[in-house]
Amino acid sequence: MLMRLQNNLLLSKVFLGCHANGFSSLISGSKILRGFNETAGFSAVSGDNLRSQSKSSLRNYQVVVAATREMGIGKDGKLPWRLPSDLKFFKELTVTTSDPEKKNAVVMGRKTWESIPLENRPLPGRLNVILTRSQSPDITTGENVVIRGSIPSTLELLAEVPYCFSIERVFVIGGGQIFRETLHAPGCEAIHITEIETNFECDTFIPSIELSCFQPWYSSTPLVENDVRFSFATYVRVRSGAPGCPLNIEGKCNGSLNHNIFEVKDFTFLPRMILERHDEFISK
Ligand SMILES: NC(=O)c1ccc[n+]([C@@H]2O[C@H](COP(=O)([O-])OP(=O)(O)OC[C@H]3O[C@@H](n4cnc5c(N)ncnc54)[C@H](OP(=O)(O)O)[C@@H]3O)[C@@H](O)[C@H]2O)c1
User: Fold this and answer.
1) Residue 284: pLDDT band by 50, 70, 90 thresholds?
2) Is the dihedral of CA 94, 100, 103, 104 positive or negative?
3) pLDDT of amino acid 13
């Protein structure tokens, strides 16, 4: 299902252009991308609700989601499927760090937090950031739990000391309201999606992945568990979602806004377990 899209061409040599109203610190190449993992993110003015945020230092993040073909993700406040191997993948992806001194953060909406069984929350080994607009949320705080009132303020906090040093990666883990605001915003550098091929009735949906901004990095062979057919895939951002900066066939930014074109030579912001799967994918 995934287009291998000129993988060799585009993913190994992608040109991104800086857009006039944002991405002003997306500078050049692997050094900067590596820097994102180790410290803070970049200056961005993002889309949708993030668009109202004036230019400030915001942390990059990666989305982790499981969705049906219709992009259904939930039903009655719960996951519609039971897939232990997906939970195992989710745990491995979000817990693992390359630096043992650091942790990752998982950012979620209040309803997703409440959908996690009491005995399993906060999700261990990760900084749990819960988004709520309530002034006096009914959430027990404690070690590894942070409550924030907006997505920009969360990404700002995670870009500041001490989190810029102690948090290796930021994963946005749901639910629908949070995905709708974050999926296509410029700070989203990758989407790890479990593609559920079996039909499930859902009441919570997210938008389809914008293939003009994200391209497949890898896709696993389909698996079957509890009669559910699914596969794991990762998409990486190859350009800003902002209008006015189209790429030509070689991935070069066209038009008058391309004065800050840069070449991304690698995608080392990806967790190693994902980064290494690309070679396997393109040689299939
Ligand atoms: N398939 C998957 O990968 C996956 C992953 C996670 C969740 N889910 C499913 O998704 C469903 C839950 O999603 P949902 O859309 O109903 O709820 P949600 O996104 O988890 O949480 C919504 C709540 O988050 C807070 N919120 C939303 N936007 C905010 C913002 N910009 N700033 C601050 N706070 C904000 C609000 O809390 P207050 O009302 O407290 O203000 C809002 O009611 C469940 O069925 C769950 O199982 C699926």
Assistant:
1) low
2) negative
3) 34
